[in-house]
């Protein structure tokens, strides 16, 4: 940046907390993609599998809202994982036009393997930062999320 009035961004734009968060997110996401690729998964597959595991019976629309993606994106991911036998759709017990999502045994096995890869990434981060700093970072990130939700 040249520092004149015609700069498209403010001074220190690349030093902002939000930019640091984005750089960290991209670095972690890239590492997740690399570690999950040998399992035939993308990070988005892992996210969908762990979401359905944590809340069995989610609908595609609920999942799209939680993941902040379009329903079409979720439908595409579900179709791919369903074709692999990792996710199944079941009719909602009260609303026959609503389809709930559930993991299959193959989906649970895939999630176990994927979660090991993700846990290894977590361990590497903790080793790099230290236990105290990792806990502090987690607390700070929770605060950032709270502040952003309140804004």
From TrEMBL:
Domain of life: Bacteria
InterPro entries: HTH_MarR-typ (IPR000835), MarR/SlyA-like (IPR039422), WH-like_DNA-bd_sf (IPR036388), WH_DNA-bd_sf (IPR036390)
Domain HTH marR-type per the UniProt entry, residue ranges: 14-146
UniProt cross-references to SUPFAM superfamilies, sorted A to Z: Winged helix' DNA-binding domain (SSF46785)
Signal peptide range: none
SMART domains attached to this UniProt entry: HTH_MARR
Pfam families membership: MarR_2
PANTHER family assigned: HTH-TYPE TRANSCRIPTIONAL REPRESSOR YETL (PTHR33164:SF43), TRANSCRIPTIONAL REGULATOR, MARR FAMILY (PTHR33164)
Name of the protein: HTH marR-type domain-containing protein
Source organism of the structure: Streptomyces ambofaciens
